[in-house]
Amino acid sequence: MPEKQKRVAAIHDISCVGRCSLTVALPIISAAGFDTSILPTAVLSTHTGGFENFTYRDLTDDITPIADHWESLKLEFDALYSGFLGSFDQIDLVADLFDTFKGDNTITLVDPVMADNGELYSVYSQEMAQGMTKLCAKADIIVPNLTEAAFLLDEPYVGNDYNQAYIENLLVSLAQLGAKKVVLTGVAFDDTQLGAAVFDSTTNTIDYAFNQRVNDHFHGTGDIFGSTLLAGLLSNFNLKNAAQIAVDYTRECILKTVELNQEKRYGVAFERAIPYLIKRLGL
């Protein structure tokens, strides 16, 4: 009997310009061979980093009708993947969607996209940051960066002033929100390498995935990382190896962007690195 194609529901915003969210998640997960359904949480003319006067349309009222129609079709998903949410009300709506569509073998991955460099994104509030803990509690895996971790735990953001013990305590605290597995992004212990810390509470193991740092800031790399991590897991790599693939592919995307000398606020040239990803996934 032929293998069934796995289906993913990606719940993120659409930034019409600036490669991030659904315009990254959809092509990456699809290129990995998975049937990718989308549920847009908001539509923006551009992403919010490096642009002014962007338009913003909240799609909260569309989420339940879309989910109800999916339920009427008896759709089943192998993964539910949420990212940027457009309003506080969407937290409960996406949590309900998880309850509806999560099967025994469904992976629920929450990327609590809301902050970076110590600050919340302009369309987020402190209330929404705290509410995000409810959605994280329903996830199998959460993928925060260091800023988002601080907001989720209501702790001060420490910037670059941390050591390995701090990171490992942070991982354990994040897992206590409810997700059994945590992948913390943007972790570095020196100036030469950057990557992620990985905690699996079911085995009580902590691992690290690093690659050589590229010294600059690039928009959309968190979404590339999360989407690639999920693609790796659905391709039957374990969490540690999927995280390493995600770190390595994200770096390849950055290198392609540097090579092309493209303006960084428009995101990274992930399209040019997709052949690398396909090779790493063994396709």
TrEMBL record:
Record's keyword annotation contains Ribonucleoprotein: no
EC annotation from Swiss-Prot or TrEMBL: 2.7.1.35
Keyword annotations: ATP-binding, Kinase, Nucleotide-binding, Transferase
Pfam families per record: Phos_pyr_kin
Keyword Nucleotide-binding: yes
CDD domains tied to this protein: pyridoxal_pyridoxamine_kinase
Single annotated GO MF: pyridoxal kinase activity
Major enzyme class: transferase
Domain Pyridoxamine kinase/Phosphomethylpyrimidine kinase: 75-263
Top-rank lineage group of the source organism: Bacteria
PANTHER family named in the record: PYRIDOXAL KINASE (PTHR10534)
Protein name per the record: pyridoxal kinase
